[in-house]
Each structure stands twice: as structure tokens, then as C-alpha cells.
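Input C-alpha cells:
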């Protein structure tokens, strides 16, 4: 009897704690040709690219040992994972750590706890994400969900230009010459989208497609004509099934859909992956780029091409319902964020979410929070360009995220998921004047207000279409958490980020940051105490000068459009 009791207890402990999974990454430069067109320098693991997907099971802990063999620092972020009681493991360079110095090593401890679903691992240092340092991170549920097989569809955009060169181009003072549009190629599961392997179907079986966008800038659409997609997960949050025709994914979004195979194997079918962007010219063969793969019921069977209707039903997060029935949060505090351009007086084209473009502090914000005593509750100690919002312990925050521009944005929240409350139009008076005088704000499409019903859906990355807002609510654990646009490096590095400093008073009492994090900073000559500048109090001596914005031009309406030039249609608002 006692042995049986111990066996049951051991099983329960295993189910609760899970396994320790150990993995080693040697991060190196690699010369690759991933799109079949351009050889370029990229960043890989163990001298290879693509990087192999990482699989663990719910409850497991991943110990990821990183040997940085680059000539610059790096940092790895587990996108979508909540680092409970360990915010220093979030992997945000100059926020939660100094970054792993060149020729040194560090081991991340990534606990899945109760989380499961579709995530990814990627660099969170400058533009290294765009150089290839990214891979799917799949946390399998401990108990089966009623499907037969898993199918991974990892989507990437791939540019010919190294991210460091691209940043120089993006952040250089404006010469009044617009940047030429660039058209990336699409990668599916790490390789040219035209080289995908067939997905084999058996009649009547159920297949869970994990579709994730690891793109840096462009969007993806995914459909399997002739088949319905049953959405069961968005960004690691299980939802009540939603039957749709297709997925429209912003950079860093993920979905799981269950597809039921047809009863007949008379025909094979195709799946479509379309890479597109509304903010560059639409040119046949360049934007969009359409990639297809085979759904193979029987080898050699003819392919049945199913006409895609003009009006198809896309996955819609505001109408989804989280499966765990988490009640909607109240509102202790409301914070309004607005995406705007920021043309400086020295003609740099930056961007802002708060009052100023984000810029990294000289001291990682987590160390400022831990070392400034009572002053850590004052947002000013984190520096003017860290755009810090200090939030109290267990406070519920409503974010009103406004996109005043004609370009879509993909907003990612570190440290938790947010409940999706409402979508609607930004007030006409707040819209950013288009730079092209042929554009008229009067042509902005009308957007309906849509509010959740019943139980709100949650996710960690949300698309904010042009000229629209989204209201979300969240409750974060104590720690330092970034909120930023995931279009990288064009938007996040250019300033579309803010910092949420959650309960620094609690952090000071409960956190014990491992010594290795301080050593990383010491190796790079970075201070680990004081305010954002490494001083005490509010003395910010040593930080770069705060950028000054050029006066904004007046908005162009129906009466203000340039004479002789008809108003040009503004981008259509996605669903």
C-alpha cells in the first residue's frame, strides 16, 4: 500500500514539476542563401540556419545555454512566456539584462509552468531577429486535445540586407529622398517558400496546424481552400473553437487550427501562404508573394483547385473567447499609447508610443528598480526616453493603443497576455497628417466599434490596423516588462516601445537577481545601480540629449488637399 502511495505521489510530482530539458546554442555568424537569390551574412546556431525548433512539454523547464560567438552582445527572449518570479530571465537587452557579452556564455532558465501552446525563441538585441536568430518554441499540452497529428508552419520574411546596415539607413538623417521600398522573400519552416514538403492527410483524421509568424515586418495569410480551419489557440491561449476560412497573421502572432481531413482521397489540395504588406507598393510577384504547398491525400492524385471567395471569414480575436473563462478585469488605471512619427530637428525619422521615442538606458531598468529605494516608484529615475510607467502591485491596467497612422502595427506585451476588450476608429482630429499632399484624411475608411461579448480572448501580440484603436486590459506580475511594436528593426528600434515597471517596491523585497547578471554588465563596463544614467536621484548627466521634434504639418482634409492633385486612396483597413 505504501509503495503504491509513493508511486502515485511520484506521478503527481512529475505532472506538476515536469522534466528538465537542456539545450546548448553556439550562436555564430553564418553565410547563407535562404531564398534562392541572395547570399548574405546571417546569425545561426551551431553554424547552421535555420535553427531547429525546440519542443518541451507543459510543466517542463528549458535550460538554454548560450555561447555567444558573435562580436556583439546578444540576448534571447522566449516570446509569449511569462517568467513568473524571474523577470530577469525575460531576455530583453538593457531592460532585464545587459546582454551576453561576446565570447561568453549564459544559461537561461525558462519555466513553462502551466503554459502550453505555440511560442518562439528569438534575439532581443537590436535587429538580430531579422538576421535569422529565431526559431519555433512549442510547448505540448500534458494531455491530448483530440487531434491526430501536429503540423508546424513557421513563416518568416527574409531580406537581402543585414540588420545593422538597415538600421544605419533607417536612422540616418533624412536627405529628402524617400527610402526605396524593399520586397522580402518568404520562408516556410526555414526554407524558400517554394520548396515546402507535402503535408500528408489521411481520410477523416484531425490535424493541428501550428501557424506562427516569425516575420520582422510583413504579414502572412494562410488558407487551405476546400477545408475549414478550427481555431483552438492564439498566442499560447486556448480558446473556444472558432470556425474560419483563413488566418491573417501580424508579425509575432501565432495560431493553432484543427483541420479535419475530407472523407475522400480522390483529390489532393493546396494550402496557400501569402506574404504581403500594405505599406509598400503592390507589384505583381513582389507584393504580395504567394507560396503554395501540397495537401496530399494520395500520391499522384489530381489536384483540386478550389476557388477562394472574395469575402472569406478570417480569424477574429475580438470575437474569440478564452477557454479558461477568465473574467474581465476591472480598471485601476488607464494608459493611452499612440503610434506617431517623430521627425527630429536634425531630420531623423523616429517613432514614438508615448511622449518621446524610446531609447535604451545606460543602466538596465531592472537594476534601477532594485537599487533606487523608494525613488524606484518614481518614473523619472528610469530616464526620459525609457518611457517608463510605474504600475502598482496587482493593479489592472487598461491600455488604449491608438494607431494614428496609415500603416499597421503589431504590438507585443512582455510579461503576460492582455484581454481584448474593444476595437474601433481613432477620432479624426487625432490622425497623423499624411506626408503625401495627394492624400486626404477624409478618405480614411469608416471602422465600426466592436466590443467583446461574454469572456474576452487573451493574447500577447495584437494587430492594430491603420487609423484604429484597440482597448486591452492586463494584470502583470512584478517586474520590468516591455511593450513594443514587433516590426523590427524598423519600428521597435526607431522608438515604438514603452516600459512597464510593475511594483518595484515588491521587486526589492522578493527578487534575488543571480550574480551572473551583474557580471555580464561588469564585463561590458555597464553600471548596475543608480538611475538610467547611472547617477543618483534625478541627475541624468551622461544620457544623450533628448531629441527635439520638428513642428508637425497641418492636416490635409477635403478642403486642404493639394490643388490639381486628386486625393489618393489611403490604405484599406484590414479586418
Amino acid at each position: 500500500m505504501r509503495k503504491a502511495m509513493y508511486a502515485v505521489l511520484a506521478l503527481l510530482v512529475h505532472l506538476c514539476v515536469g522534466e528538465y530539458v537542456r539545450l546548448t546554442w553556439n550562436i555564430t555568424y553564418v553565410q547563407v542563401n535562404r531564398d534562392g537569390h541572395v547570399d548574405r551574412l546571417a546569425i545561426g546556431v551551431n553554424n547552421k540556419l535555420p535553427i531547429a525548433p525546440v519542443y518541451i512539454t507543459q510543466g517542463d523547464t528549458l535550460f538554454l545555454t548560450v555561447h555567444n560567438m558573435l562580436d556583439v552582445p546578444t540576448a534571447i527572449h522566449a516570446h509569449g512566456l511569462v517568467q513568473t518570479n524571474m523577470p530577469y530571465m525575460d531576455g530583453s537587452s538593457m531592460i532585464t539584462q545587459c546582454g551576453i557579452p561576446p565570447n561568453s556564455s549564459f544559461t537561461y532558465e525558462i519555466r513553462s509552468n502551466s503554459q502550453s501552446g505555440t511560442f518562439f525563441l528569438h534575439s532581443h538585441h537590436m535587429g538580430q531577429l531579422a538576421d535569422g536568430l529565431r526559431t519555433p518554441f512549442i510547448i505540448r499540452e500534458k494531455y491530448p486535445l483530440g487531434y491526430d497529428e501536429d503540423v508546424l508552419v513557421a513563416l518568416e520574411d527574409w531580406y537581402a540586407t543585414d540588420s545593422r546596415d538597415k538600421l544605419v539607413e533607417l536612422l540616418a538623417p533624412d536627405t529628402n529622398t524617400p527610402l526605396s521600398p524593399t520586397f522580402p522573400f518568404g520562408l516556410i519552416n526555414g526554407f524558400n517558400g517554394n520548396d515546402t514538403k507535402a503535408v500528408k492527410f489521411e481520410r477523416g483524421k484531425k490535424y493541428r496546424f501550428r501557424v506562427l509568424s516569425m516575420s520582422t515586418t510583413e504579414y502572412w495569410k494562410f488558407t487551405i481552400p476546400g477545408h475549414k480551419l478550427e481555431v483552438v489557440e492564439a498566442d499560447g491561449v486556448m480558446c473556444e473553437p472558432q470556425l474560419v476560412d483563413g488566418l491573417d497573421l501580424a508579425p509575432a502572432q501565432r495560431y493553432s487550427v484543427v483541420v479535419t481531413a475530407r472523407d475522400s482521397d480522390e483529390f489532393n489540395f493546396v494550402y496557400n501562404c501569402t506574404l504581403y504588406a500594405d505599406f509598400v507598393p503592390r507589384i505583381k510577384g513582389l507584393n504580395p508573394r504567394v507560396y503554395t504547398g501540397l495537401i496530399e491525400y494520395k500520391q499522384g492524385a489530381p489536384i483540386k483547385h478550389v476557388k477562394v471567395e472574395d469575402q472569406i471569414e478570417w480569424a477574429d480575436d475580438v470575437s474569440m473567447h478564452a477557454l479558461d473563462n477568465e473574467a474581465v478585469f476591472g480598471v485601476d488605471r488607464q494608459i493611452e499609447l499612440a503610434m506617431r512619427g517623430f521627425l527630429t530637428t536634425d531630420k531623423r525619422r523616429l517613432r514614438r508610443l508615448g511622449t518621446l521615442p524610446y531609447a535604451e538606458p545606460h543602466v538596465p531598468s531592472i537594476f534601477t528598480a532594485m537599487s533606487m529605494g523608494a525613488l524606484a516608484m518614481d518614473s523619472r529615475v528610469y530616464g526620459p526616453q525609457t518611457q517608463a510607467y510605474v504600475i502598482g502591485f496587482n493593479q489592472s491596467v487598461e491600455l488604449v493603443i491608438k494607431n494614428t497612422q496609415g500603416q499597421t502595427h503589431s504590438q507585443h506585451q512582455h510579461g503576460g497576455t492582455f484581454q481584448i476588450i474593444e476595437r474601433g476608429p481613432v477620432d479624426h482630429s487625432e490622425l497623423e497628417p499624411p506626408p503625401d499632399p495627394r492624400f486626404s484624411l477624409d478618405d480614411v475608411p469608416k471602422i465600426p466599434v466592436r466590443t467583446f461579448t461574454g469572456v474576452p480572448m487573451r493574447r500577447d501580440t495584437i494587430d492594430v490596423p491603420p487609423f484604429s484603436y484597440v482597448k486591452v486590459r492586463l494584470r502583470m506580475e512584478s517586474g520590468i516588462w516591455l511593450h513594443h511594436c514587433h516590426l523590427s528593426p524598423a519600428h521597435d528600434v526607431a522608438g515604438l516601445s514603452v516600459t512597464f515597471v510593475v511594483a518595484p517596491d515588491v521587486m526589492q523585497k522578493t527578487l534575488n537577481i543571480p550574480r551572473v547578471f551583474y557580471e555580464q554588465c561588469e564585463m561590458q563596463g555597464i553600471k548596475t545601480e543608480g538611475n538610467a544614467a547611472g547617477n543618483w536621484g534625478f541627475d541624468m548627466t551622461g544620457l544623450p540629449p533628448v531629441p527635439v521634434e520638428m513642428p508637425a504639418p497641418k492636416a490635409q482634409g477635403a478642403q486642404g488637399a493639394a490643388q490639381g492633385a486628386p486625393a489618393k486612396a489611403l490604405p484599406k483597413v484590414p479586418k
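The two ends are 60 Å apart (CA to CA). Helices lie at 2-17, 163-171, 365-371, 504-510, 515-523.
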